[in-house]
Amino acid sequence: MMIFTKLLLAHLIGDFLLQPLRWVIHKETNKIRSKYLYLHILLHFIVTLILLWDLQYWKLAVIVAISHYAIDLAKLYAAPLFRLKSIPFFVDQFLHLTVLYLVAYQGDWLQIIADFFQKLDWPLVTAVVFVTFPAAIVMGKFLEAMGDKIELDHKSLPNAGKYIGIIERLFVLLFIILGRWEAIGLLIGAKSVFRFNDLKESNNRKLTEYILIGTLLSFGLAILTGLIYRA
Q1: Within 13 A of 82's CA, how many CA atoms are on the CB side?
Q2: Per-residue pLDDT tens for 37-58?
């Protein structure tokens, strides 16, 4: 576990703290010919060796550096194929973390994964999954008739309300599991403050009632899920 932690820390330092934006731009422009690509890999190798602080692990540092080069190079050429830059970014990070995991645990990684799934709290996983998109779909069905009577605000971000609801339900579920009911009140209060000006300016009673019902339903589903999990 300690080796993986050190490899992860080295990755975070090399990929985020020691990589200026101009390096990233230069790599995206010049790709394999970019000098900063190779400097970036060299820094990863050095930081990894320093954090491991044991020369017997030099092979691990070499494997990490070579794999990092291959993944970064593939990302540079694949990124233009995606409309959203976030997709190749997250794929890139996932591949890096996978390599670090395999390098750190070597032959034991299959057993570690098996132990992880055996010890996993499946009721908790089910609760977390439910309060995300399934709960959003359930709420959409409940509010479908009311939503048809509300004028859409085209200035809003696409699906912003859905993702706000998912995040707030996850927070409510977390607070219930931790037994911090007062935090749920603070969350409701904070959301009310942010919504107050919008509702005041719109002067739309139907919209106000729709948002209020949606908020109460969202919190209610999360609270019910949390209570069922704890029971």
Answers
A1: 13
A2: 999 999 999 999 999 988 888 8
